[in-house]
# Entry
Amino acid sequence: MTHDVVIAGAGPVGLFLACELRLANVSVRVLEQAADPHSPLKRLPFGRRGLWASSLDAFHRRGMLEDITMPTAAGVGFGSGAMAGGPGAPRPAGHFAGIPFDYDDIDAARWPYRLPDSPVANVSCDMAHLESVLAARADAMGVEVRRGVGVEGFEASDEGVTLRAGGETIRAGWLVGCDGARSTVRKVGGFGFVGTDPEFTGYSVLVDIADPGKLRPGRNYTPAGMYMQGQPGYIAMADFDGGAFHRTRPLTLEHVQAVLRRIAGVDVTLTALRAGTTWTDRAYQAATYRKGRVLLAGDAAHIHSPLGGQGLNLGFGDAMNLGWKLAATIRGDAPAGLLDSYERERLPVGAQVLDWSRAQVALMRPSPHARALEAILRDLIGTRDGATYFAERVWGISVRYDLGSDHPLVGRSAPDFELADGTKLGERLRSGQGLLLDFDARAPLQALATRWGDRIAYVASTAKDTLGLGAVLVRPDGVVAWVAESAPDPDQAAGALSRWFGQPG
# Structure
């Protein structure tokens, strides 16, 4: 059987991309090497992940936000600060190398294109819950997911891709590697992968401690590294050994205790190792995200340390950007170069996140120079300007694609306009179509939108706050492609529609 797209990897990014493609009735098969999607490392405390504004906006636009942020037995923490303590307690909104910035210090008024009643800007969620929601959505949309079957090899041509997986031959029009940091698709496809090697081995362990009072709570920098104790017995460490221990030897109680004693500088005694994993700050990125009919997204395209929780959100951004462009290419109505814009837009965003991760590692080094720099950064982050800057970077609010327009809204995530009927812009994007929003309800724009009716929804409505705009063209991924500040020019609107949605039907 031939599929339009085969996706390697049924993690959150692969599943979300599959859902995006099914919105456009593209046939999708997802192949996952692991037979069992369940793992203790996906549950709390190991599986906790931060979801930032960029991802939460995407889920809102696809009608999944409520399911993902639904409180469960596993626990979902909202970014309101309500869980941070009593009245007057700090309300941490994120961190940079462990230095928190606080909600009360953030000046959201400096983001004029993010309306005050936009979806929540950050949520903590466990990976098991997140994957279950995405898997259920994929199943409901008719995505075929095969577990215990990984991509073993493939040959690609101008006509398609022939894969070897699970002892069978599978043919597809396109192959997307969402198969993680050690991506088979990336390696077999010959994608260049360049970056910086690790400085430390990171440890996340759940242990029983005979004398827990010897360890200070919270994040602690020492002359030998860093350790953090969250809930009792859950410890994270950074041992600046150049990543020497990661994936080289089994993780044992004796080894974890030795590393913890050396970093903490106390003779703490561990009595049991319940679970644990290692990781590093290796920061690498694919030199290109596309080679013919083979593409990369998520960790297959970029890897870095988990500091600050940027990686998963970066992957969701890849999937949201790629899905509609690949679908349009498969349908045959994509304008020239549309699929190439995936790499052009997403590769620079990935490079920025990798540098953001490297900067945090530099601040964590066990040296007097790093501690001096940390003190300066801590003062800066504690200011209103500093907290606002770090929030917009961590939450993804600062992301803006260069779409060739001087208007500051073009290339950004669209504001969640509240329309006259009470609906929000995000709700109008759930079909996966683009949206031409006409605040002036001008007949020329309505007639124009009709010509792209299979790819564009036209909405003529006033809004609670139009931000002084007359019309807005929004791509299916929620990115603003064109705006008119006064009476819209139909010729300019037609040019923008042609650029992003091809020739009219």
Q: What stands out?
A: The first helix runs from residue 12 to 23. The mean pLDDT is 92. The radius of gyration is 24 Å. The chain has twelve helices and 25 strands.
